[in-house]
Amino acid sequence: MPQTASKETGFDEWFVTAINSGALMLMISIGHRSGLFDVLADLEWTDSRVLAEKAGLNERYVREWLGAMTTGGVTEVNETGEYRLPPQHAQFLTRKEGGENLAAFAQYIAVLGNVEDDILECFYNGGGVPYEKYPRFHEVMAEDSGMTVVDALEDHILPLVPDIFTKLADGIRVLDLGCGRGKALMKMAAEFPNSDFHGMDISEKAIQWAREEAAQRKLDNLSFEIRDASLFDRTAEPGVYDFVTTFDAVHDQADPLAVLKGIRRTLKPGAVYLMQDIHSTSHVSSDLDHPLGPLLYTISCMHCMSVSLAQGGAGLGAMWGREKARELLTKAGFDDISIHRLDHDIQNDYYIMTKSA
């Protein structure tokens, strides 16, 4: 954390570490997207020519990338100029089954860098940056949620909801609001064919991708809709869903309270709402020890807050926190709110609410 590091090492030393780390994230993003980490993990000691050939890439660029990775302590080099990715690093940087691919998260730095000029303009003039300015954000979010949410859905997240597996197996109606590319829905739809699943999102590109993927998988119990949820408190169909989910979707809405009121409106009496959102308090002074504090406040400033403000919205930001979340959920009519943490997930809180009769 910057506050601690500057006191311990001197701010100039901390800054050198920070700027090197920022540069490494760009190179790690490239290594992830190009498949270089996956190829390198399957090789023993190798040179840039062999690595480039096996990865189908330009050798000169691969050689310079290896320079950044090696001076940054990610890869190793020997006296003959051959490189390797240590196994203890590979488990966190590759797509290997059973691993935790942290390299995917490095993409946020590059994606947000693309809108720096637009965000700077907002610093001077207010307003926000619309969704269409972030061409890869949904793709990166889908990869992020694929690891933190989708992979944990069956074993960790759904068990937070009493009797949900029995209900899904018997057949219920499920809505995921702000579904993005719909990966969580696809997993549930495939596992529980007797239930009916519906996804809504404002992004045409995300919904188009979801529809094509669902059709390819022949998930006939799954449908998607392009929808702005700003008026959901008035337009939501009353009392039709048995289970509603939102995954990291409420805080960047134009009108989060309207969304939450709409969710309660569309639930049947006794039905359950599961909200996954960023773990934080509503006070910076209480977030100083958050392990992802700087990253999450940056994502909030350069995306979550800004896309809401671009719609003339509330601009809550990703770090709206438990206190604000409880306040809005209570205003929306939820009076039975429980908050859970999962051992594998340092980033999120999981809210469970049952609609009273």
From TrEMBL:
What GO biological process terms does the UniProt entry carry, in alphabetical order? methylation
Domain S-adenosylmethionine-dependent methyltransferase Rv2258c-like winged HTH: residue ranges: 23-95
- Sorted UniProt keywords: Methyltransferase, Transferase
User: What are the Methyltransferase domain coordinates in residue numbering?
Assistant: 170-281
The answer to whether keyword Transferase applies is yes
Q: Which GO terms describe its molecular function?
A: methyltransferase activity
Instruction: Cite the InterPro entries for this sequence.
Output: Methyltranfer_dom, SAM-binding_MTase, SAM-dependent_MTases_sf, WH-like_DNA-bd_sf, WHD_Rv2258c
The record's annotation in Pfam families points to: Methyltransf_31, WHD_Rv2258c
- This one is known as Methyltransferase domain-containing protein
User: What organism, scientifically named, is this protein from?
Assistant: Fodinibius sediminis
